[in-house]
Amino acid sequence: MSENGAGKQLSRLEYERKARRRSLIIAGLSTTAVVGALVVLVPLAPGWPAVKNSFFNWEIFVRTSPTLLRTFLLDVAIFAWCAPLIAIWALVIAVFRDTRSPALFPFRLFAIIYTDIFRGVPVILVVYLVGFGIPGLGLPRPWNSPYLWGSVALILTYAAYVAEIYRSGIESIHVSQRNAALSLGLSQSDVMRYVVLPQALRRVLPANMNMLIALQKDVALLSFIGPVEIFRQAGVFKSLLANFTPYVVAAVIFLAVTVPATRFADTLISRQNRRRS
Amino acid sequence: MLKSPLIAAAVALLMTVPLAAQAGPECAAGKTISPGKLTIATGNPAYFPWVIDDNPESGEGFEAAVAYATAEAMGFSADQVDWVRAGFDESIQPGAKNFDFNLQQFSITEDREKVVDFSLPYYSSAMAVLVQQPTADAGAVPTIDSLRTLKWGAAAATTAVPMIDVITGSSNSALLYNDGADVVEAMKANQIDAALFDLPTALYVAAVVLDDGVILGQFPADRTENPDNFGMLMQEGNPLKECVDQAIQEITANGVLAGIEAKWLSETTGVPVIQ
After folding, report:
1. Could you say which residues of chain B have pLDDT below 70?
2. Domains of chain B, CATH where assigned
3. For A88, which of A28, A121, A161, B231 is 20 to 30 Å away at the CA?
4. What ranges do the domains of chain A cover?
């Protein structure tokens, strides 16, 4: 009986292994066919030499890469100082929005209006308005720096989105937990601090990873008000060389950062799903 | 009047020969994108003094006038000229273009020539340094040493960018913007001290856009480094190029071009030259 069961077990494993190998081979073949067709067919198009020269010009790729890589450091720096400030300011807005005491209603109102406005207005308008408008009021140097006010614009906009993500996390904590904590004698603020937020922030981590990836790309919007980061530098090269290859270089550099970040976010999400199920 | 068809034919031949030697309609026949029409592109919007009131159809403004003069020399009457709008990016993209030629202060450069064709130059532009009065009051003068201490800005898609690097002696020394309007905005916000424009644009900005704009000086058009010659941009290998070139040679030789320049860009003299 047991011997028979072990035999069955073995043949099932065998079968599964075969099936897996079979699907791997099919996937491999179909991918090769599609990629092969693209590689063979696209260059057959009549305009391919012109497109190749304009977008995938190796000589220009090599010539512009070092400068573009250097200007990418500015994107990284802007990202690095914006991200933590966004996280903090968004948390403030989210907590404002969750206030329940009638006396604190103005805070709540402010949070509602704030998120409505900054989620509804195009980022680029905020960048222009804050980046040119506020320094235009007559601030002396260095307080009129486009780096400073451009960053403020990004922080204001992104905080509105992230605050809403926080809020969804906060509201996902069941009200019975709050009531239980209150019945234990915790104050409203302690409930928020020790019961709600630790769970809520953990829950929205994957969603916030997506915001980080979006922010990495939107940092380039600061170039509209002066800073020469990778996107602007690519534009300068484009105009001087009359060739779009520098943008392809910029895209490759961006991908080198965003693809690992996206994979990391996916891992976080699936880990969280496993834990919940 | 004519006695016989033979003489008529001979007269017609005589009349067409000199025309064909110049840039007559024969040259352009069948080479334009829509038959019997010359399609010319300009920027969106097009700026003073190149095109007045963003209305090239009026023929008012330097480039609008040059376009009509060129068209005439090529054998197109004013109502055979169609205008379209096309930015720089649309003009350098691979593939068919929606214009025969595009003029909007495109500087002819060796690198650009690899991708598109340029006509002979129709204007050689000086580059001018624009500042605000307080900067000039603070002691900025048109010498390289003084200019080097300023905070620079320019429109990113222009040949002013490499020139600022030459002036300041370092790369990436300027803040760069999408267009001239944004450069002016940054200047108003006091984020930059000085901007580099082609001289006619700088004069316009100083006189009309800024309250206290001052042209500090100009780098003359015939400078040896980075001369800024404006050419009409055409698709690479466009057969129309020789006709356009002949037309520009013709309006240069007969003084029409100089007349247009005198009419629309006359203020450009009298600006101090930077050594």
Report:
1. 1-25, 172, 223-226, 267-272, 274-275
2. 5-122+231-268 (3.40.190.10), 125-219 (3.40.190.10)
3. A121
4. 2-44, 58-276
The answer to whether the CB atoms of A223 and B176 lie below 8 A apart is yes
Q: CATH fold of A58-276, please? A: MetI-like fold (1.10.3720)
pLDDT of residue B120: 92
Instruction: Find the closest chain A residue to B159 by CA distance.
Output: A240
Q: Could you read off the pLDDT of A61-120 as tens digits, one per residue?
A: 999 999 999 999 999 999 999 999 999 999 999 999 988 888 999 999 999 999 999 999
Q: What are phi and psi of B94, to 5 degrees?
A: -70, 145
Q: Which segments within chain B are labelled E, that is strand?
A: 38-42, 81-85, 101-102, 116-118, 123-125, 127-132, 152-155, 174-177, 194-198, 213-219, 228-230, 233-235
A64 has a chain B CB within 8 A of its CB: no
Query: What would the pLDDT profile of A115-150 be if each residue is shown by its tens digit?
Result: 999 999 999 999 999 999 998 888 888 888 899 999
Q: Do A146 and B162 touch (CB under 8 A)?
A: no
Mutate which: B172, B179, B212, vs A, most A CBs within 10 A: B172
Contact (CB<8Å) A240/B192: no
pTM of the model: 0.77
Three-state DSSP state, B81: strand
B93/A244 CB distance under 8 A: yes
pLDDT at position A2 is 53
